[in-house]
Design a protein that fits this description.
By secondary structure, the chain is of the alpha+beta class. The chain has 11 helices and 12 strands.
């Protein structure tokens, strides 16, 4: 709540690491605590067993002394047993009275008292932990007392008990070493867990971070963002769904752009159509009168050669105006397609036949690649031939004498639709990349002559066939056009 009120933003990676850290601390701490308690309990059990064995050994060694009340022999024996681990030994008689002791400092009244119960049985032992003052310092001990029985009768006789005090200093040192080892193992496991959690968190949050960045780019209109697929789990599925979404959005935007472009193109054509109708009405009739009058003047034999030359130039200008009006009206007129089944190779052959003389005059080298097994197309042959002628004529005008034009036809697949791909390229002067889209606009031209309607008309015809035309990149200088026509088009 405080973070939210303060406006602080905690990343998913940070929250994940916090959660994993707390979980690791709890799990590792719990495991260490359980293991440490079990190890300590085991160590003390081993100390107890060692103490019982030590007391039993002393009892067996001094059993004869107890039977014959040989306190001197017993004292000598237990004095020899004392060492750094065995701090003291106390032997009680059958009446639970102190009989012999060794290693006791000061009064140690509590140690001089037997702790065995009233009813004593074999294999009985009592133990306790206490602090014993030895040479002015406190020593932790485990005290163990066992009864001593003598055999030789149906029921063994109770002859007393042996109490020993074993130092726990070495045991505590071992416990401390065990704890440090457990702490070291726990810290190593904790660090390894953190590293693993960090890698896992990065693997989970990395694609999500990329996803967030991708959504931001999409909101800014950039649909090219994709997430690399590195796994087949839910994260990989999320990345795959995101990539499919961006691809669908990109296709949708392209369709919208195409629809908008076609709408704008239609509006342009409508405007040009209205202007063309006005031009045809306002110019054609006066222009016809002027043309007829010039023809009458040319029939006058009294005119000089200079006057006839000027009239011929005027007549040529009128012809250009009529040609422009005709092309403009043809461009704006939306005519129905006369669809028939054709071989694309047949239409290309007819187009090349028309331009054969021009190719020979400029000594143009034609490189042609057209497989014979291509499927047929349902098109308007005349209009599609007009498209090829327009592009080929542009290539002829662009190349120098002895230039090269390449025409390659192949089968392509686009969105599960088979299409015939026609690529026409040349090594001419080329078109600036910034003008690749503009050249299909009406009245745009890069040539010193022409009206700029040829490629616009070509795109209109190709799009009527549900196809596409565009300029594509090529190696070296020159220009390459790519036309795609569906193999089957419904009439």
């Amino acid at each position: 709540m405080r973070f939210a009120q303060a406006g602080l933003k905690i990343s998913l990676y940070t929250r994940f690491m916090f959660a994993i850290t707390f979980i690791l601390i709890f799990i590792v701490g719990s495991i260490l605590l359980l293991v440490e308690r079990r190890e300590v309990r085991t160590i003390f059990e081993q100390s107890k067993v060692r103490g019982i064995l030590k007391a039993q050994n002393i009892a067996d060694l001094n059993l004869e002394g107890l039977k014959f009340w040989d306190s001197t022999g017993i004292q000598t024996n237990i004095d020899r047993e004392l060492n750094d681990q065995l701090i003291y030994v106390v032997i009680f008689d059958r009446f639970r009275q102190l009989y012999v002791s060794a290693g006791l400092a000061g009064d140690a009244e509590d140690i001089k008292v037997s702790r065995l119960p009233v009813r004593v049985t074999e294999n009985l032992s009592v133990d306790r932990r206490l602090d014993f003052t030895l040479n002015g310092r406190s020593v932790p001990l485990i005290e163990i007392e066992i009864p001593v029985f003598a055999g030789g009768s149906p029921e063994p006789d109770y002859w007393g008990s042996v109490k020993v005090g074993l130092s726990l200093e070495e045991i505590y040192s071992e416990i401390r070493r065990t704890r440090w080892m457990l702490i070291l193992i726990g810290c190593s496991g904790f660090l390894l867990g953190l590293v693993g959690a960090g890698l896992l968190a990065r693997r989970i949050t990395g694609p999500m971070k990329t996803l967030v960045e991708g959504t931001r780019r999409i909101s800014r209109g950039d649909f090219s963002q994709t997430i690399p697929l590195r796994s087949r789990d839910e994260i990989g599925g999320l990345a795959r769904s995101f990539n499919e979404m961006t691809r669908d959005l990109l296709e949708t935007r392209q369709r919208m752009e195409d629809a908008n472009r076609k709408l704008i193109q239609a509006e342009k054509l409508a405007s040009i159509g209205r202007i063309s109708a006005t031009i045809a009405h306002e110019i054609r009739n006066p222009l016809t009168s002027v043309k007829l009058n010039i023809q009458k003047l040319l029939e006058n034999e009294s005119l000089g050669e200079e006057e006839k030359e000027h009239l011929d130039i005027s007549q040529e200008g009128i012809g250009l105006i009529e040609k422009f009006i005709k092309e403009l009206l043809n461009f704006t007129r939306v005519s129905d397609l006369n669809l028939e089944r054709f071989s694309i190779q047949q239409i290309i052959d007819e187009s090349l036949k028309i331009l054969r003389n021009i190719f020979q005059q400029k000594r143009i080298v034609l490189e042609r690649s057209c497989p014979s097994d291509l499927p047929a197309v349902v098109v308007d042959g005349d209009k599609l031939r007009q498209v090829f002628l327009n592009i080929l004529r542009n290539s002829v005008e662009a190349v120098d004498e002895g230039g090269k034009i390449a025409l390659a036809v192949s089968l392509a697949k686009e969105n599960s639709v088979k299409k015939i791909r026609i690529r026409i390229s040349d090594n001419g002067c080329g078109i600036a990349e910034k003008d690749w889209e503009n050249i299909f606009e009406p009245f745009f031209t890069t040539k010193p002559s022409g009206f700029g309607l040829g490629l616009s008309n070509a795109r209109k015809i190709v799009e009527q066939h549900m196809g596409s035309i565009k300029v594509v990149k090529k190696k070296g200088k020159g220009t390459a056009f790519e036309i795609r026509i569906p193999c089957e088009v419904e009439p």
